[in-house]
Design goal:
It is a single chain. Helix 3 (96-112) packs across helix 4 (199-213). By secondary structure, this protein is α/β, with parallel strands linked by helices. It has 4 helices and 11 strands. The relative contact order is 0.20.
C-alpha cells in the first residue's frame, strides 16, 4: 500500500511540485513506494492545462502558478486539504478515465463519513453537493456547490497532483477566479455545510475509505 505522508503547516506550491516530480520519477523507476501526500498551501491560484485567461478575474490577488495538471483554475489555501496521489497505474491498469472515477468515488465515500452526499455532474469536474435551501438559479436550476476539486497528471503512467477537499477555507478567496470555469454554481466547505469537522477528521476518513477504491495491485 502507498506511503501516507502528512505535512504540518503550509507547504509552498513550487516545493510540492518539485517533490511530486521527483517522487513520481522514483516510483516509475521502481526505487520508491507509491505515496499519498496530505498538505495545505498558502493562498494561491493554479492554472491547469485548460485554464482560460478570462477566468482569472483578480490576477493580482494571490500568486498564480501555471501547472501541467488537467483542469482549469483552482484555488488552494489554508483550511483546504490537498491530497497528492502518486500511484503507479502500470500495476493498477492503464485506464485514465477509471482512475479519475476512482478518485471521485473516494472523495464521495470520504464525504459520506460525515453524512454529506457528494455527487458527480456530467461536464463538471469535481464533487458537488445539492443546496436545496438556497434559491434556485434564474432558469429554475437547483443550486449546487462544489466541495472538492480533482486534477491529475500522468508521467510514465505514474499519477501526481490529485484532489482537494474544502474543510474550512476562506470561501471568499474563490472569488478571484471562475473555479474550474463554472460561473453559475457556488463553492462550499464542510464547515460551511454546518459540520464541525477538523482537518484530522478528514485525514482519518480519507485513510479509512482509500482501500475500497484503490486496492493493492
Amino acid at each position: 500500500m502507498p506511503e501516507w505522508i502528512t505535512s504540518q503547516g503550509l507547504t509552498q506550491y513550487s516545493d510540492a511540485v518539485t517533490w511530486m516530480e521527483t517522487r513520481a520519477g522514483a516510483i516509475a523507476a521502481g526505487t520508491a513506494r507509491e505515496a499519498i501526500w496530505l498538505v495545505e498551501h498558502p493562498p494561491l491560484y493554479t492554472a491547469g492545462t485548460s485554464a482560460k485567461p478570462e477566468d482569472l478575474t483578480d490576477p493580482n490577488r494571490f500568486e498564480v502558478h501555471e501547472t501541467r495538471r488537467g483542469g482549469q483554475y483552482t484555488y488552494h489555501g489554508p483550511g483546504q486539504r490537498v491530497a497528492y496521489v502518486l500511484l503507479d497505474l502500470n500495476t493498477r491498469g492503464k485506464d485514465v478515465r477509471k482512475f479519475v472515477q476512482n478518485l471521485e468515488a473516494w472523495v464521495i465515500a470520504t464525504l459520506a463519513e460525515f453524512n454529506v452526499t457528494g455527487e458527480i455532474r456530467e461536464g463538471r469536474v469535481g464533487v458537488w453537493v445539492p443546496r436545496p435551501e438556497k434559491p434556485p438559479l434564474p432558469d429554475g436550476t437547483p443550486r449546487e456547490d462544489k466541495v472538492a476539486a480533482i486534477g491529475v497528471r500522468l508521467r510514465k503512467w505514474v499519477s501526481f497532483h490529485g484532489l482537494s477537499i474544502n474543510v474550512e477555507p476562506d470561501l471568499e478567496h474563490f472569488s478571484g477566479i471562475v473555479p474550474c470555469g463554472i460561473s453559475d454554481q457556488g463553492v462550499t466547505s464542510l464547515v460551511d455545510l454546518g459540520l464541525p469537522v477538523t482537518m484530522g477528521d478528514v485525514d482519518d476518513a480519507l485513510k479509512r475509505t482509500f482501500g475500497a477504491h484503490f486496492p493493492a495491485p
